[in-house]
Specification:
15% of the residues lie in helices and 25% in strands. The chain is of the alpha+beta class. The chain is flat. The N and C termini lie far apart (92 Å).
């Protein structure tokens, strides 16, 4: 198959018409006074592309790298925050001497804590009790005792707010039961005693 193509004739060449002996050039102003190859022709790589650089996901070589670079960090925690978390209210974390929120850190001394109960507890008769009352109503009205069954359901949130150092942050904690507010208030009282 090294034979030349028998169907090709040398009268037509692909591409734009060219002057014999001159390579195609870039449009005016792009070559800076020299004739550079046009689009589609092999070109020399610039010096910046010839130097190998760091690959994707690697820290740059100039300067020291950030601690823990490339690894997931705890959200809202600045790199220099030392100590273990003492209390947590949603996205508010209380450390030894500071309060860490997604908006930034606040000093623990002088912090003002508030909690608002935005939950509600509803008491209702479950559907099962109504069905059993109807079925057993035929047996000497014993089925009416099933209507004494009650079901409590708590919905809503507990709002916890902290103000310190000219900053304010609020978070919402879901209320899982009627005792959730008392548990949050116990933690708020602990945070208040640490803020003195």
């Amino acid at each position: 198959m090294s034979d030349p193509n028998p169907y090709a004739d040398d009268s037509y060449k692909w591409g734009p018409p060219q002057q014999p002996g001159n390579p195609p050039t870039v449009a005016d102003g792009q070559g800076q006074g020299q004739s550079a190859p046009a689009y589609g022709y092999p070109q020399q790589l610039p010096d910046s592309a010839a130097r190998p650089g760091p690959g994707y996901g690697y820290p740059p070589e100039q300067g020291p790298a950030m601690p823990g670079y490339g690894y997931p960090q705890q959200p809202g925690m600045p790199p220099g925050a030392g100590g273990a978390p003492m209390l947590t209210f949603g996205d508010i974390t209380v450390m030894n001497d500071q309060i860490v929120t997604p908006a930034g850190t606040m000093p623990l001394k002088g912090a003002v804590w508030t909690a608002t109960d935005l939950s509600r507890t509803e008491e209702r008769i479950p559907t099962v009790a109504i069905v059993l009352a109807i079925v057993f109503a035929l047996l000497c009205l014993v089925g009416l005792l099933f209507l004494l069954m009650k079901e409590k359901k708590t919905t809503g949130f507990i709002q916890v707010s902290v103000t310190s150092g000219g900053r304010h942050h609020s978070t919402m904690i879901p209320a899982l039961g009627p005792e959730t507010f008392q548990m949050v208030m116990a933690q708020i009282n602990t945070a208040r005693s640490m803020s003195i």
